[in-house]
Each structure stands twice: as C-alpha cells, then as structure tokens.
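Hi U.,

Before I forget, here's the chain from the pilot set. I'm dumping it here mostly so it's searchable later in email.
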Amino acid sequence: MHLSENSKLKRFYEKLEQCRDVRHRYPTNGSIKIRQIIKEAPTNFTTALDYPIHRWYYYKEGFSPSMVEDFVKGNHKESIVIDPFCGGGTTLLVCMIRGIPSIGLEVNPFSSFLARVKTRIYEKNDIKSFQKHIDKIRTLRGKSSINPPKMSMINRLFEPYVLEGLLFYKEHITNISDEESKVRDLLMLGWLTILESVSNYRKGGNGLKLKTPTHRKAILDRYLEEPTIIRQNLVNQYTIMLEDLEKTILNRNRIEPIIHDPFVSAINMKSVIPTSHISISIFSPTYANCFDYCEIYKVELWMGDFVKTYSDLKVLRQRSLRSHLNMNLGKVSYHDPIVEEVLSYIPVERLWDKRIPMMIRGYFEDMYNVFKAHMDILKERGKMVVVVGNSAYGDVVIPTDLVFCEMAESVGFKTLHINVVRPEVTSSQQAVNLEKKGIDQYMRESVLCFERL
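Structure:
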C-alpha cells in the first residue's frame, strides 16, 4: 500500500470516530505494559476468579462482574436485563444476586449448561445432598464400564490412566437419579472444570495447544506419586463450589434467570422475547477474529455429551455467528457500505484464506440483524451495552466498534459513548505494520453504550 493510501485509510478511521464520545481507559503512550493493561481491563474475566460462583469455571471469553454491576446498579425488580450471548453467565449471575430479573440466550450447549448451573437457586437440601455425594466420591473405588466419546483425538488428549479415572467418576455422576438433577449437574460441572488441568492440551488461541513436555511429565509424575489425583482434583473443585453455595444461600433477594434453549439465537430472539420487554441488554458477541468456539470448547462438548457425533458438531457450528471459517458461510444479502470500504483496503492476495472477506460480510450482516432484533425487544430509552474487540487482516484493522455504531444508529439507536478499555493483540509482525501506518490505536477492545430512541 502506498503512503497516500495509508493516509487515506487513517483519515477513514478518523472520520468514523468523528463527533463520537470516545473515552480511552488506558494510556496510549506505552507507559504501561500491554499485559498489565489487559489484566486490569474491566472486560477481562480473570478478575471474576475473586467472586463466589463466578470462579467455578474459567471462561476466558467472559467479562468482569464489576463491569456488569456498573451498568445494572440502580435497576430494580421492574427492570429486565438480557444477555443474548450469555456465555458463562456473568451478566445473569450478577443480576440474580442483585434480585434483578434476567434472560439469557446461548447457542453453545456447554456454555448454556455452565450458565444454568451457576445461576440456579440452591436450597439447604441441595447443599446437603451435594455434600453427601462429595463424601461418597472420596471413597469410590473401581473401574469404568462406559466408553469414551467418539472424538478422533481422545487418546492424545488424555493419558490412558487419566481417561479411565475421568470416565469412572463420570459414570457415577450420570447415574444419579433425576430427583437429584440439580446436584447431578453441580457434580458434572465440577467434573468438566478439571478436564483441562489433567489433559495433555490447553486452550490457546483458536483451539487447543499441546502442553509442553514439562507440563505433561508433571501430570504423569503427580499420578505416579498419588494415583488418586483425579479424585483429589474433583474434591478440591467441589469444595470450592460448596463453600460458595454456603455463602450465597442466605441471600433471599435472588431471582433465578430464564435461560432459553440453545437453539434460540440472538438473531431470532424476538421469537421468545415479547416486544418492548427489556430494559437493558449487556452482551459480548463473538469477535470477527476467526475463532471457532466449538473448537476451543470441544473437550467439554465431547466429554460432557453435548455433542456425540461430528454431525452434531457441524450443526452446532452453523448456529453461531459467521465469525469463523469452519462453517458454511452462505450468501450475504446485506452489504454495509462502511464494511465494503474497509475491505477495499485489504490486499486479498496476502490473506491466509480467500474466504475471509466473505466471512467478514456475513459477520456484520448477522450483527446487523442482532441490532434490529434489539429494536423490537428493548423498551423506549432502553440501553444496549456491547463489548467487542476489533481484528486485523492484511495489515488493515476491521474497526468493528465503529462499524457497530454506524449499524446500530441506522436501525434506531443513539450512540452514547465508546469506552476503549484495552488494546487487542495481533501477530507481532502485523502489530509492527499497523504501527508504521499509524493505525495501531484502532486495534482495541471497546465497550459500546447505546440508547434505543
């Protein structure tokens, strides 16, 4: 790209930002290390690990409970909050504890399960039953009689002794009667939570990455030293969950959220949400970064029997936004002029996959339909809060936050402000190139605040 084209691209971003209240929450002069900025950002789920129940499962794509609290404080029982991409249930859990009615939608069945278990109201009898089963698990001995999931990489994910131990406890959990279904789900969530810690793989980037030989050897050494390590991990996790349940049971203001079936997506949410029903929507959609969350959470999906065949997985992928390439992208009928101009700057021959422009168009068409659906379900002057990160392809930033503002305004929203909370990470080479062009500041994560007119 010539210098004149670089200047034109920079002016294009500046024009999109013009006349908007853009608030930068972190220094842009390099005085603070990027890792520290990311760690302290209100959109970082790491801070949730200090909160009861939120800490049960590290949902890395989630945001901080404190951010949700900032937006819902002052709301009351007449208000209704929705999170149409509820993920691990952070928004719903904050509302439940504060006694605010809330609704969640989530197309990933594992994430939906996680949110349901975390936001149920548990009574003393449930906690007593949970403790009883924990005590029983401490004494269980034997071997599993169930088969592992039909997942192609299952024998690489876990050492044989680890897989055998996991299946043994899973069999016990799944055999618990429906009369204790709430407790059975608690036990299953704890079991799903420890999978990564005993696996040969870890979540990283767009999927799973093999742990280092040192880490894998540590798992083996721990097992050889103490063969009951699976049970120990389980009991430790259950102890944390039990402590949190005992802390929260005295809160009588709790209101259990409604979480709809995973087949209801944010795009078609008006099929289950009445018109002008919602006071505030707080959500973070998947980003246009090619991340496939079926791939990232495939261990939980397969091991938890949320998918049983690769056909199930294919169907699940098609329910997500068009934010990745592991799906049929289909045709695009809505062409946003801002998106088309951004795409015109991208050198297609430098892309690692020629379908990326099609994916980007599909993603913004899907999000345009999500905003339109919000116009139906939100009350007049209702608020919509969106957490989103920008992405980059071919050394060109996709300014998703600014495009969202344009699209939301086109369907009837007013942009209140854009809070830029942290930089988004890209490859080191692309980061250097973006800096040379003077557009690296647009590679960021933002919290967008809208009002329905």
